[in-house]
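User: Earlier you gave me the apo prediction for this protein. Now I'd like the version with flavin-adenine dinucleotide bound, so I can compare the two side by side. Same sequence as before, with the ligand SMILES added.
Assistant: Got it. Here's the input I'm using:
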Amino acid sequence: MYDIVVLGAGVVGLSTAVRIQDVLPDRKVTLIADKFTKDTTSDGAAGIFRPSVEKTPVKCLQQYRTWCQDSFKWYHTLNVEDDPSETGVIRLSGYHFANKGSNPPRFHYGITELTEKELADLPGNFSFGWKYTSLMIECRRYLPWLTKRFVSRGGRIEKRKVNEILEFAGKCSLLVNCTGFGSSTLLNDKKVFPVRGHLIRVAAPWVKHFYVWDDASSYIYPGQDNVVLGGTRQKDQYETSGGWEWFDDVKSRCVNLLPGLKNSEVINKWVGLRPHRAFIRLEVEDLSCNGKQLKVVHNYGHGANGVALSWGTAIEATEIVKTILSQESSRFKSKL
Ligand SMILES: Cc1cc2nc3c(=O)[nH]c(=O)nc-3n(C[C@H](O)[C@H](O)[C@H](O)COP(=O)(O)OP(=O)(O)OC[C@H]3O[C@@H](n4cnc5c(N)ncnc54)[C@H](O)[C@@H]3O)c2cc1C
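And here is the structure of the complex with flavin-adenine dinucleotide:
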């Protein structure tokens, strides 16, 4: 028997499990997943805080903004108050080239348009852009940091694949589903689709700023251990092995942005599937099996912004969990 089960140990599941412990310290939380830390999609992500408000359906805009604001506040506090070599949350400044009329990023520590002189002094031949400071969350450090926090507060971990969500009917107070792309098979959710991405990590300690070229989906983000070069966005592509031509393409686009990277040593090449959905699924579902009930709070489908949005959606998922549990407890008391 379980109390609260969180299914999925990527950045969304771990954040949700930790947040539930923060808000409901008397409940027992068990985290179940078949992949942890370095084997998750979250681990490979660039981790930049740049959620794209533009693609959000109008009716969900306010909710989306709240997730962004809550997450930014959380990462800002971690950056200021904790050790970034442990949390992985660093502050990063740099240049973002775009077309006139493009929408500027909305979450940052201040942004200014690049002047003609600044553009002329930068590599490339761009005619418009901004400079700003933002946050980067390196999941190679952040996921272990969240895991340590979860376990130190009595959280339990089980490593296994779950083939049927209804196995938990009658066996837990509530289940929170944070299985990301796994929800497409676990729940047969046809609205989930992959957007494949390729990243390269190189040794180039001299890169101290980020460089982004919107039009070509090209970016260079310096982290604490290496520099991330990206990327690709390939809808409905499932294959995560091979793809060497795409890595060559990423490298050559980034060398165009910053020619000094030409001979940088490649440390790692990585392919991941962004768990896209028309909009993130954050809601309750009542299931039952052989007369046994299962309440599921879904929290998945974060697409290209899961690292950035994870804390904001964890806050909302936890509020839903809290409301359900207090309703159940009042119902139980009124029966006595
Ligand atoms: C190339 C690339 C670059 C990216 N860059 C950024 C970025 O800069 N900023 C940003 O915010 N986001 C970025 N993202 C997106 C981000 O990686 C995802 O949105 C995020 O990782 C989703 O987190 P998650 O926890 O939902 O999924 P995951 O990290 O995939 O975790 C899913 C978890 O569920 C478990 N699971 C699934 N099914 C089952 C099952 N049946 N049984 C047991 N366990 C199960 C898995 O084992 C795993 O633990 C990027 C993604 C890619 C591919």
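For your comparison, keep in mind: Residues 4-90+135-192+277-335 form a domain with the Rossmann fold fold (CATH 3.40.50.720).
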